[in-house]
C-alpha cells in the first residue's frame, strides 16, 4: 500500500539524515518539510479515526506545523509519552461510543 511505501521512505530518509548528518544537515529544513508532508499523507491514508480526532493527534498537528520532532521522538526514539494523553482521550471517546 502507498502508506507502507511512505513509511519505508521516511524511515530511510531519517536514517540517511542521522548517519550522514554532515552531508544532509545543511538541507535539514527542506528535508524535514518533505518528511512532514509524507507523514501527513501517510496518517491520512492510515486514518482509523474521525477527522476531528486526527486533528488532535500531536504528531499530526506538529507535522502540519512543520515540526518533525514529535514524530521522530515516537517513531525513531520509541518515546510513547508523545501520544499518552491523546491515546487516553481517544480510548475514553471510543469506549463512550461503544456504550451508545
Descriptive overview:
With 100 residues, the chain is mostly helical. It has one domain (2-99). It is built from seven helices and no strands. Helix 1 (2-19) runs antiparallel to helix 3 (28-45) and helix 5 (58-64) packs across helix 6. The longest helix has 18 residues, at 2-19.
Task: Round the mean pLDDT to the nearest integer and report it.
Answer: 94
Approximate shape: elongated
Tell me the fraction of residues in β-strands, as a range. Answer: under 5%
The amount of helix comes to over 70%
Order of helices and strands: HHHHHHH
Explain the layout of strands and helices.
Layout: H1 2-19, H2 21-24, H3 28-45, H4 51-54, H5 58-64, H6 69-75, H7 84-99
Which properties best describe this structure?
mainly alpha; 74% helix; 0% strand
Brief digest:
This protein is mostly helical and 100 residues long.
Amino acid at each position: 500500500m502507498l502508506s507502507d511505501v511512505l513509511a519505508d521512505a521516511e524511515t530511510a530518509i531519517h536514517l540517511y539524515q542521522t548517519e550522514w548528518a554532515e552531508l544532509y544537515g545543511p538541507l535539514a529544513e527542506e528535508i524535514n518539510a518533505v518528511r512532514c508532508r509524507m507523514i501527513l499523507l501517510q496518517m491520512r491514508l492510515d486514518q482509523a479515526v474521525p477527522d476531528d480526532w486526527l486533528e488532535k493527534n500531536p504528531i499530526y498537528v506538529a507535522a502540519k506545523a512543520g515540526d518533525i520532532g514529535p514524530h521522530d521522538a515516537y517513531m525513531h526514539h520509541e518515546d510513547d509519552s508523545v501520544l499518552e494523553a491523546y491515546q487516553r482521550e481517544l480510548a475514553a471517546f471510543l469506549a463512550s461510543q461503544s456504550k451508545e
